[in-house]
Amino acid sequence: MSSEHDRSCRQQALDAGRSFIVQAPAGSGKTELLVQRFLALLTTVEQPEEILAMTFTRKAAAEMRGRILRALTAVNDNIPDSEPERARWSLAQAAIKRDRARGWELARNPLRIQVMTIDSFCAQLAMRLPWSSRLGAGPVIREDCSALYRKAAEAAVELVEGDTPYAEAMAVLLRTLDGNQQAAITLIAQLLAKREQWLSLIHFGRGDKAELLEKAWGEEVSEQLNELSCSLRQHCSPETLSQWMACAHYAGDQFLKAGKTHPARSCIGLVSLPPVTVSSLEAWRGLSALVLTSENRLRKTVNISSGFPTPDNGGDEKIKALMEQLLGVLSELDSPQLVKLLGRVNRLPSMDFANSHHQVLSAITTVLYVASAKLMLVFKAEGATDFIEITHRANRALGDEASPTDLALVLDQGLNHLLIDEFQDTSRRHMALLEKLTVNWGAEEGRTLFVVGDPMQSIYRFREADVAHFLRVTTEGLAGLRLELLILEANFRSSLGVVEWVNRVFSRILPKESDPFRGAVTYSPAIAQPSKGPDGEVIFNPLLDSDARAEADLLVNHVEIELNQDKLINVAILGATRAHLAAIIAELRNRGIPFMALDNEPLQRCSEVQDLLCLTRVLVHPGDRGSWLALLRAPFIGLSLSDLTLLGEVKTGLFTQILQNVLDSAADGAPERDRATLSAEGRRRLQRSAPLLLKAGEEIGRHALARQVEGVWAALGGPALLNDTQMANARAYLDLLADESRNSPFPDLAQLHQRVARLWAEVDLNAGDRLQLMTIHKAKGLEFDVVFLPRLGSQGRNEERQLLRWSGREGETPLMAPVVAAEESTDSYNTFLKELDRDRLDNERDRLLYVASTRARQKLYLYGHTSVDSEGEIKPPPVSSLLARLWPALAGEFSQSVMAKPASGDRETLPHKTKLFRAVDPAWTPPPPRPAIAYPPGGRPSRGERPEFIWVGEAARHVGSVVHEMLAHIAAEGAAAWPVSRRQQWRSSWRGRLTELGLRREELDQAVSGVEMAVNCSCEDPRGQWILDNSHQEAWSEWDLTGVEDGTLHRIRIDRSFIDNHQRWIIDYKTSDHQGSDVEGFLDQEQRRYTPQLERYATLVAKWDNRPISLGLYYPLLGGWRCWQWSNNELS
Question: pTM, whole model, 2 decimals?
Answer without folding.
Answer: 0.75
